Amino acid sequence: MNTDRSSARRIHVTGVVQGVGFRPFIYGLAQRFTLTGWVRNTSAGVHIEVHGDPNSLDAFTLAITAEAPPLSRIESVDSQAVEANNGYAHFEIQHSYAQAGAYQPISPDVATCDDCLAEVFDADDRRFRYAFTNCTNCGPRFTIIQDIPYDRPQTTMAPFTMCPECQAEYDNPLDRRFHAQPNACPVCGPHLELMPSPVQEVPPEWDYLPLNEIEAVRDLIRAGYVVAVKGLGGFHLACDATNAETIQRLRKRKGRPAKPFAVMMPDLGTVLEYCEVSYAAAQALSGRERPIVLLPLKSGTDIAAEVAPGLTDLGVMLPYTPLHHLLLEAAPDFPRALVMTSGNYSDEPIVTP
Ligand SMILES: [Zn+2]
Ligand SMILES: [Zn+2]
Questions:
Q1: Residues around the ion ligand 1 (C-beta < 5 A)
Q2: Most CB atoms within 10 A, among 150, 155, 317, 318?
Q3: Rounded to two decimals, what is the model's pTM?
Q4: 108-190 sits in which CATH class?
Q5: Residue 250: closest CA among 238, 268, 242
Q6: From the CA of 180, how far away is ligand 1's center (Å)?
């Protein structure tokens, strides 16, 4: 066995490798194989230099593809031997830099992961009911990026300075939020705001709405209003999918007389009560892309016929942001299906913030 410690390699990885926990993953691998050197993002991909035992370098290089983080999509791993200089005492994540003309694909936004969801509904967690909870494994990506390489200063999160607790998570290689660019909490991150429509009369109920924005929106939906909800990528118009009169009003406003609307339901269990769901459909619904899945609607449900006039199939999706989960939280007097449709006039692009 070659115990010469002077071997070194430069490795260049391309594909969806930014905003998916790739550098922390590389950091962890380097620790495991006792390698020194660095990793950094550039607009051309992820660059790595590793020094150490040649067998460990081989194992490290193989593990990059074999154990890649779930959200990544590696296109190429290019490895070259370089002269070892023994100049590194440890392995570090270096600052990113931009390379003119270079480009890497960016991860799409990813549905809230189970760990984050558990925090949002845990009364003892500091992110309890925080609508913008995210981590390295989930949350906004494409929507918040203004330039590459993907780093917080190049995202719409740049104005939100992390509080000490969030910063500690961001800096800790063992934390689920290590280098999670949109990391935020109720102390330091964005907040919800509820605003009356600038073009409509303020509803008489407005003065009686609770101070909590989510409960207020739920009250408006219960009362038959259509609420514009800022989500990932643009505004959704949300309303009670069981209220025929509300949906007729929505159709008139959108200039969409008959085209079916998709609905969002709080969880798979609810979808099973409303629709015929095959195993494949259940898998698709729960996938991190959160597609709208067309499902045969069971007869005798309380979904208004106006949602998909004349059709036996219903387009259904599951919540994919903490805000959706909070808005759709089950309550005896709250609808179990909301129409969620893009906030635009028929055939025009979605309204973005
Ligand atoms: Zn998460
Ligand atoms: Zn914070």
A1: 113, 116, 135, 137-138
A2: 150
A3: 0.81
A4: alpha beta
A5: 238
A6: 10
